[in-house]
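Most newcomers find our protein records easier to grasp once they have seen one. A learned vocabulary of local backbone shapes supplies the integers on the structure line. Here is such a record, shown just as it appears in the course material:
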Amino acid sequence: MSPVNKDCSAFGFQLSAFSRKLLACIVSVCLACCSIVYAEQKIPTQLSPKEPITVNGDKVEYFHEQKKVVGTGNVSITYKDIVLTCNKITVYLDTREAIAEGNVKVTQKDAYFTGDRINYNFDQRKGKILNGYVDAKPFYGKAGEAEKVGLKDEFIFKNGYVTTCDYDKPHYRIQAKEVQIYPGDKVVAKHICVYVGNVPIFYFPYYVQPLDNRKSNVTIIPGRSSDWGYYALTATRYYIDDANRGDVLIDYRSSKGLAGGINHYYNTEKMGLGGGSVKFYYTRENNWTAYEKTGHEKTRYRWQVRHKWDLGQDTLMTFELNKLSDPSVIQDYFYNEYEELGGQPDNYLSFITQKQGYTMELLARKRIGKFYDVIERLPELKIDIFN
């Protein structure tokens, strides 16, 4: 390879490979010296110099008056645990800030983000990036504007999305006004809409997904049965906080159609009010035998609310409410639950107190749905006195 011609105009040097290495060492020394001078002028109490920023590239220019270094062509910078690569970079020595352009990639620990342009501060470990993409396994995301914040390695996406699908066009995504990603800890999203393909499925004002939970976020159960035909049952977990979590259900059965619902579990132990669950399931059944006779799809649903409240060491309150579209909806869609119930759900409110000499129970039971036979208790008080 013939040596590259040198150009000394405007303090710019285009160097050979050997000279570039030599210049990199010189620039490192200059940066270290500038860092020491800057620290002495601005922060007199600082005892140790800042770590130098070494710029490597096909062409590296140092501008003394502007106190900046410009690198172009296969640029790379390794600073502590950060590796930055791009096509062009300008580093300002006074502020320790850099402007990188063209195929920008910043790698740190088990995560990296890329984009068209980034403004990055090496001391504060902060940066803003345009048209950003982040890879922080198991999450991936894109945004028109992304930001890396501080020493905690936090990523903020604005008007973008995150997903666990690593395809260029993910099967599903969480579109949000703002997404905060804490690698290895959690993902926090505000004003989100979940998309499957390009179809919006549901909306949440606030969403938290922990990353240290080993349970699968999405569960898919495919199969075939005589009643359902071919089917695929899916559950997507969501996590708002330690007291609110649940599953979003989207199911398909070839002989019945599309169905969906939500199972939400809550806990109010911090307020001393107990905890429970709220479940909802809905479908417009396209059972073709019924459809051919009537010309209409069959709407079926179930509501269920359960609550348990420990009022003390000797008193317990339990509550359950079930609202069904028809008497066989649980049997047709939740057969395991149907067997546990013994065929019929209950609607009641119960207070039970157990003392040393007696047990007292206050029970209220109401029939909800004309298709069940229920002995109503409005209410009933029962006291058992021990011998």
The helical segments are 17-42, 288-294, 329-333, 335-341. Residues 1-48 have pLDDT under 50 and may be disordered. The longest helix spans residues 17-42.
